Amino acid sequence: MITRQRRKSPLSQLWVPLLAVLFLGYFGYHALTGSYGLWSLDRLGIEAETLKAQLETLKAERAEIERRVAFLKPDSLDADVVDTEARMSLNLLRPDEVVISFGAVQHRP
């Protein structure tokens, strides 16, 4: 009967801790430098502030549009408002009207 004797290598006891250190190093590196890592928090904070400011601008614009639409509802319909809005959007006049222009823009921005 032949038996083979093997010597235990010091590396055979180190492969599990070495593998654990490699995994921790890999995930630790990406936790710091990744696109959502710790070093990107300031960039994400600036982007969040920019988006909040843009949201406030859009909310104000929407409130203005809702206010203008409220005048066009059937229960509060005002003929002057309808006439003004139609003229501004179509940029048209009646044949019997005279326009005196002072160089101002004829439509709203």
Characterization of the model:
It is built from three helices and no strands. The chain has helices at 15-33, 41-70, 79-90. The N and C termini lie far apart (98 Å).
Low-confidence stretches: none
Helix and strand run = HHH
Tell me the strand percentage band: under 5%
Q: Any idea what the shape is?
A: rod-shaped
N- to C-terminal distance: 98 Å
- The number of distinct helices, counting runs of at least 4 residues, comes to 3
Q: Can I get a quick summary?
A:
This protein has helices spanning about 15-35, 40-70, 80-90.
Features:
single chain, mainly alpha, 109 residues
Strand-helix topology:
Blueprint: H1 15-33, H2 41-70, H3 79-90
